[in-house]
Structure formats: structure tokens, C-alpha cells
């Protein structure tokens, strides 16, 4: 066998194999590689979108937390103000009640003093009558001398 013919046959077989590979094997491999590249690119884009969504969600979460803290502080401050207001109202009501009780006690004391004065006047009038009886050695009629005894009470 001739080496040139062998080389020529090998060249034809090689070119035929290369042509069959380029025509029937290579295009599906290229399509599979391109599809895989597209899927990888889409996956990377989705990962980037997910990362940006995560960052955005984190920022929103921080904003919501900040707002919730501010609202909580406002609620606490309002509660403290309301508590102070209630305490102040209770103090005012207690002061009004204390003043009313003191005034009632003063009024009762004044009435009791007035009754005591009246009782004392009556006792002084009786003592005066008893003293006058002793002095005059006769009975003085209280009904007859009522005007004079009322004047004496008024002076006392």
C-alpha cells in the first residue's frame, strides 16, 4: 500500500468525520452551551435582582422599625402625660374635697360654738335669776321678766 494513498484516505476520512461533526454534532452542542449560558445569565440576573430586593427590603424594614420606635416613644410620652394629668386631677379633686371637709368642719364648729354660747347664756340667765332670788329673797318670775332676760343674754 502506498503511503500517499493511505494519507489521502485518512485525509478524506478525517474531512468526512469533521464535516459530519460540524453538520450534525456541533450545532446541538453549541445550542446546549448557549442555552446553558442563557440560563446562567438569567440566574445571575435573578440573583442580582434578589440581592437588590433584599437590600430594599432591609431598608424598608429599618424604616418601619424606626417608625415603630418613634410611635412607641410617642405612645409612652402620651401615656406619661396622661398619667401626670390624672395625678394632677386627683390632686385637685383631693384638694377640693379637703377644702370642703375643712369648711364643713368649720361650719359645724361654728354651729357648735353658737349652741354652746346659747346654752351658756341660758345658764348665766338662770344663775342671774337664782342670784336675784337670793338677793331679793323672793322668786323672780322668768316669764314676766323675759324681755329683760333676753336683753341680758344679748349683752353676754
TrEMBL record:
Indicate where this protein resides in the cell.
Answer: Cell membrane; Endomembrane system
Pfam families from the xrefs?
ATP-synt_B
Database matches in SUPFAM superfamilies: F1F0 ATP synthase subunit B, membrane domain
Q: What is this protein called?
A: ATP synthase subunit b
Recorded GO CC terms: endomembrane system; plasma membrane; proton-transporting ATP synthase complex
Protein purpose: Component of the F(0) channel, it forms part of the peripheral stalk, linking F(1) to F(0). The b'-subunit is a diverged and duplicated form of b found in plants and photosynthetic bacteria. F(1)F(0) ATP synthase produces ATP from ADP in the presence of a proton or sodium gradient. F-type ATPases consist of two structural domains, F(1) containing the extramembraneous catalytic core and F(0) containing the membrane proton channel, linked together by a central stalk and a peripheral stalk. During catalysis, ATP synthesis in the catalytic domain of F(1) is coupled via a rotary mechanism of the central stalk subunits to proton translocation.
Family, according to the entry, reads as follows:
Belongs to the ATPase B chain family.
Keyword Oxidoreductase attributed: no
Record keywords: ATP synthesis, Cell membrane, CF(0), Coiled coil, Hydrogen ion transport, Ion transport, Membrane, Transmembrane, Transmembrane helix, Transport
Bilayer topology annotation: Single-pass membrane protein
Q: Does the keyword Transport apply?
A: yes
Its domain of life reads Bacteria
> Annotated Gene Ontology MF terms?
proton-transporting ATP synthase activity, rotational mechanism; proton-transporting ATPase activity, rotational mechanism
Q: How does it assemble?
A: F-type ATPases have 2 components, F(1) - the catalytic core - and F(0) - the membrane proton channel. F(1) has five subunits: alpha(3), beta(3), gamma(1), delta(1), epsilon(1). F(0) has four main subunits: a(1), b(2) and c(10-14). The alpha and beta chains form an alternating ring which encloses part of the gamma chain. F(1) is attached to F(0) by a central stalk formed by the gamma and epsilon chains, while a peripheral stalk is formed by the delta and b chains.
- UniProt lists the gene as atpF
Q: Which residues cross the membrane?
A: 6-26
Q: Which organism is it from?
A: Mesosutterella multiformis
Q: Which residues form a coiled coil?
A: 99-130
Q: Which Gene3D superfamilies match?
A: F1F0 ATP synthase subunit B, membrane domain
Amino acid at each position: 500500500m502506498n503511503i500517499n494513498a493511505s494519507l489521502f484516505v485518512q485525509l478524506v476520512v478525517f474531512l468526512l468525520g469533521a464535516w459530519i461533526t460540524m453538520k450534525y454534532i456541533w450545532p446541538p452542542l453549541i445550542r446546549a452551551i448557549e442555552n446553558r449560558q442563557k440560563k446562567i445569565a438569567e440566574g445571575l440576573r435573578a440573583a442580582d435582582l434578589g440581592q437588590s430586593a433584599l437590600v430594599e427590603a432591609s431598608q424598608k424594614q429599618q424604616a418601619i422599625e424606626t417608625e415603630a420606635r418613634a410611635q412607641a416613644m410617642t405612645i409612652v410620652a402620651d401615656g406619661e402625660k396622661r398619667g401626670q394629668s390624672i395625678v394632677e386631677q386627683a390632686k385637685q379633686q383631693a384638694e377640693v374635697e379637703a377644702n370642703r371637709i375643712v369648711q364643713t368642719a368649720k361650719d359645724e364648729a361654728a354651729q357648735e360654738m353658737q349652741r354652746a354660747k346659747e346654752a351658756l347664756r341660758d345658764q348665766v340667765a338662770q344663775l342671774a335669776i337664782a342670784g336675784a332670788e337670793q338677793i331679793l329673797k323672793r322668786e323672780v318670775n322668768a316669764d314676766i321678766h323675759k324681755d329683760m332676760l333676753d336683753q341680758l343674754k344679748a349683752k353676754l
